[in-house]
Amino acid sequence: MSTSPAPSSAPRFGVNYTPRRGWFHSWYDFDAALAREDLDQIAGLGLDHVRIFPLWPLLQPNRTLIRASAVDQVAQLVDVAAEAGLDVMVDGVQGHLSSFDFYPEWTRSWHHRNVFTDPETIEAQANLLRTLGSALAGRPNLLGLQLGNELNNLVEHNPVTVADVDHYLDTLLAAARTGLGSTAGLVTHSAYDAAWYGDDHPFTPEASARKGDLTTVHPWVFSADCARRYGPRSPQVEHLAEYGVELATAYAEDPARPVWVQETGAPEPHIPAADAPGFARATVRNAAGCANLYGVTWWCSHDVDRSLADFPELEYTLGLFDATGRPKPIAQALAETVAELRAEPRPTEPRTTALALVRTPGTRSISGPGGAYFEAWMRLRAEDVRPAVVLTEHAEDETYLTARGIKEVVRPL
Amino acid sequence: MSTSPAPSSAPRFGVNYTPRRGWFHSWYDFDAALAREDLDQIAGLGLDHVRIFPLWPLLQPNRTLIRASAVDQVAQLVDVAAEAGLDVMVDGVQGHLSSFDFYPEWTRSWHHRNVFTDPETIEAQANLLRTLGSALAGRPNLLGLQLGNELNNLVEHNPVTVADVDHYLDTLLAAARTGLGSTAGLVTHSAYDAAWYGDDHPFTPEASARKGDLTTVHPWVFSADCARRYGPRSPQVEHLAEYGVELATAYAEDPARPVWVQETGAPEPHIPAADAPGFARATVRNAAGCANLYGVTWWCSHDVDRSLADFPELEYTLGLFDATGRPKPIAQALAETVAELRAEPRPTEPRTTALALVRTPGTRSISGPGGAYFEAWMRLRAEDVRPAVVLTEHAEDETYLTARGIKEVVRPL
């Protein structure tokens, strides 16, 4: 039904790479040796990949100036990761990182341009993605090129319609693909949870689940207050990533489209530090029970150093390693879980029972924590049913259901 | 009456340094050898100084992170200028440059802070200026540390009152002075013409003329449409910088306070290219007729390369050198004028006739092109009177008038 890449026989496990020294400001003083230290630590946990985040203003300080040296540093980081034995997903246009929005000056202030709708700004981003893709093409450890991290965090300051977003994503995905050329790399995009849970949010589940080579999900436990609502050790929290994969699968046109849990993490106080190792084990293990899981990429590798100001409190303690480079208990828990899963046979039995979901942009919040659909799914899950999700428009489509291995469709009460 | 430095026996002549390759984006890839090439060209014109402009986001990407490497590059540029035989004024917080506003991410978007009024943001800028001052202190070719380029361009996006501005300037000037320590360097600030001509603009003439070690003026011919209104070869245009010095002198508390024509230039189409050499000669020569002139610093050294997008049209052709590094006719005109002035005795006769100006924040526009006071002064000037400017509050203060050498105060009709 599509050209989606089949999930690899085993899911990938990795981490979002947050440089220990200087956070992403380290791009200003890129040092391959320091990066190598961080990456060796990551590889030492048995993880197989990292996701990396260059900064837009450094790559493209003027609309028509892409700094070759900055592009080269991205390529160098990919190569350093290869030396450490890690594959790499490159997010092109940052954009949003841990509450900070990195915009080049030519989009702000007197030069304000809407990054989603201004034609010259879209073209500039397309040029950047083509350039990055072309520079990275052919590297054997390159997983692919993603447009940018949670682009929809920029919606608040760049008002945009669904049609605008679709045009933007289509244009940039095509540019990234052109850049990569014949390289067998993924081209993807990502959005924070508003795409799945936000009524009338302009980034839609359909855009996430149908554009690009696979679907990325970032099921954070603070979204819709999931952990606060149900508790840090609740089934709802421990199955959140699994649920996110199943929900995303329902929106895909290709029943076998892979879904990547590209960000999940244990933010304090939503997940108290003592609960973090258990949360990591459960999250990864439960997500690994999804047949079409592409992989899980933990957020993040290293704590933000407290010498850096103004991060939301929860951002300081999300690392597997602390700001001095010491592994935290969650690092060990993640490493052990990954090793265990790799040693186990991958579950092959499809989810035979699906819970039907009415697809309505304006009622998306029913699918989020606190929503009726979410809670119905979690009730079924508590009965050990391992439910899938199907859209009601597919609920009587035998071809579709067969392709997914679904034998029974349940309607929520 | 104050501790203002006396004007040097001869005014200084220099240029605002706009790097030929990559404009100010060249800070991202600082290369002392490339800077040296540019600076040697500048020194080759017989100019004695440059004004340089580091970028705030590069110096201070996080509120509590001042990049030592970026500070060091500023110091390196000062040293490279010394090797080229040039003195250097360093503008600390950019801020505004040629229509682009460079703000660190921690002041924008989700983290929006008013750069003039937020206490932590003021403290961060004070830290930056202390750090820069300390790093630069003791360099014999350092003219001083200015807070930043035309800070009042940021008012539009950071609403602020007169009292707020005064507090901001006082705090940062003190920080810059602390940073320089015992170094005999100037500590100054700068504003674009709205400070002088803009009714109720929160940066006041008093702030310009009374804070910091001398007064800086940036009398641009496009302000209040001066060149369009009177013509590019009009007396109003050719005496604009001279008028700016006299106007600034009136607002000073120290009658001998030096005034620096820190920016003036020949923007097309306001000044057609063919008129630019004549404009430069007249501007510099007329300004040099002001007894308390500190110096004239032309804007700018090098044209902006047209491969860089989105600059206002006039910004592309303001250089003494074109984007390939060739000197333009205006470079020769400026060099010759500077050489001539250095060979001539400096005018020592005071301006004995002054035109009285009513000081009212809300009627400042009378002092600008098109304004009644401006036009009255220019009429007197056309009679070869060489008028000074006095505030009406000083018009009968004999001590004050004597200190300035004024014998006759004329009221505008």
TrEMBL record, chains A, B:
<dbReference type="GO" id="GO:0004553">
    <property type="term" value="F:hydrolase activity, hydrolyzing O-glycosyl compounds"/>
</dbReference>
<dbReference type="GO" id="GO:0000272">
    <property type="term" value="P:polysaccharide catabolic process"/>
</dbReference>
<keyword id="KW-0326">Glycosidase</keyword>
<protein>
    <recommendedName>
        <fullName>Glycoside hydrolase family 5 domain-containing protein</fullName>
    </recommendedName>
</protein>
<feature type="domain" description="Glycoside hydrolase family 5">
    <location>
        <begin position="27"/>
        <end position="266"/>
    </location>
</feature>
<keyword id="KW-0378">Hydrolase</keyword>
<dbReference type="InterPro" id="IPR001547">
    <property type="entry name" value="Glyco_hydro_5"/>
</dbReference>
<dbReference type="Pfam" id="PF00150">
    <property type="entry name" value="Cellulase"/>
</dbReference>
<comment type="similarity">
    <text>Belongs to the glycosyl hydrolase 5 (cellulase A) family.</text>
</comment>
<dbReference type="InterPro" id="IPR017853">
    <property type="entry name" value="GH"/>
</dbReference>
